[in-house]
Write a structure and sequence with these properties.
single chain, about 325 residues, alpha/beta, Rossmann fold, 5-stranded parallel beta sheet, 4-stranded parallel beta sheet, 11 helices, binds N-carbamoyl-L-aspartate
Length: about 325
């Protein structure tokens, strides 16, 4: 039985975009689009999750994901608190499951969990009680499903909802990226015309993640004529030694500069999930330039997280 869905197809937990059917993905994106008008403030939606309690349970650092889940829950009227596992009794030897069960015993209805290990969030979902749902806010290099959704919502906002004519490039450290894995799942489900991946061979995964994509090791070739350029951060904290020679060399070969961006379509958009390493994978002139939709992505993150919380809890 699926951990993520009830037998009738509704979401039980939200763990991965891998097995989310097209219709369910569309429904979430449509809900996020509707919520967007009220996502950045106001009190219009405070009734939706009144009386529900959401806990942000973070075993790994976060800026955008944690803050936007907090705001999303608040704007839907839930009680919400953040539990920073790095300052907790986990340090005294308490297991992650015991931590979750104790917080659950205080009346938490939904946990938003980030963890550095692949599959750790699904394990916690298995341990959760029947009325408690778990949302994956990023597990290791495995999945980051709400980032995948916000990236799709952002592409739709700027390029329209028909992906069947879009050429999309994902460039950089794909091997260690949970964002890339969730994005690839969603792009395939939504029928993107062409998906290209580009990075040094040492950062391109060999586990099936990029099957069906056009694979490039030369960014100047990969970027020719694309509609969307998604840049990824070099995940140095997940990286074995020696996968890249030097940061300067990486920027020279794989950094997105204005000159390189000029090889894409003239109206191509530039995306990055953050945090950016400026001067490593992306130049300031591009990150802050007119084709960048990096901050609109962040705004869409709030709407998408409201849609997911609503789908699970309302
Ligand atoms: C990403 C993450 O944590 O997976 N950031 C995010 O959630 N916006 C990407 C990254 O860390 O590079």
């Amino acid at each position: 039985m699926s951990l993520q869905f009830f037998p009738d197809g509704r979401f039980r937990h939200f763990l991965s975009l891998e097995d989310v059917p097209h219709a369910a993905l569309e429904k979430l994106l449509e809900s996020a689009r509707e919520l967007r008008a009220d996502a950045l403030g106001g009190t219009a939606l405070r009734q939706h999750l009144l009386g529900k309690t959401v806990c942000n349970l973070f075993f790994e650092n976060s800026t955008r994901t944690r803050s936007s889940f907090l705001l999303a829950a608040q704007r839907l009227g839930a009680d919400v608190f953040t539990f920073d596992a790095s300052t907790s009794s986990g340090k005294k030897g308490e297991t992650d499951i015991d931590t979750l069960k104790n917080l659950e015993a205080m009346g938490v209805n939904a946990f938003v969990i980030r963890h550095s290990e692949n599959g750790a969030v699904a394990k916690l979902a298995e341990a959760a009680g029947p009325g408690t749902c778990v949302i994956n806010a990023g597990d290791g290099r495995h999945q980051h499903p709400t980032q995948g959704l916000l990236d799709m919502l952002s592409i739709r906002e700027f390029k329209g909802s028909d992906f069947s004519s879009l050429k999309i490039l994902i460039a950089g450290d794909i091997k260690h990226s949970r964002v890339a894995r969730s994005d690839l799942n969603a792009l395939r489900t939504l029928g993107a015309a062409e998906i290209r991946v580009c990075g040094p061979a040492s950062l391109l995964p060999t586990d099936g993640t990029i099957d069906g994509c056009k694979r490039f090791e030369d960014l100047d070739q990969a970027i020719q004529g694309v509609d969307v350029v998604m840049m990824l951060r070099l995940q140095r904290e997940r990286m074995e030694e020696g996968l890249i020679n030097s940061l300067d060399g990486y920027f020279r070969d794989y950094g997105l500069t204005q000159k390189r961006l000029a090889l894409a379509k003239h109206d191509a958009i530039v995306m990055h999930p953050g945090p950016m390493n400026r001067g490593v994978e992306i130049a300031d002139e591009v990150a802050d330039g007119p084709q960048s939709i990096i901050l609109p992505q962040v705004s869409n993150g709030v709407a998408v997280r409201m849609a997911v919380l609503k789908a699970l809890l309302a």
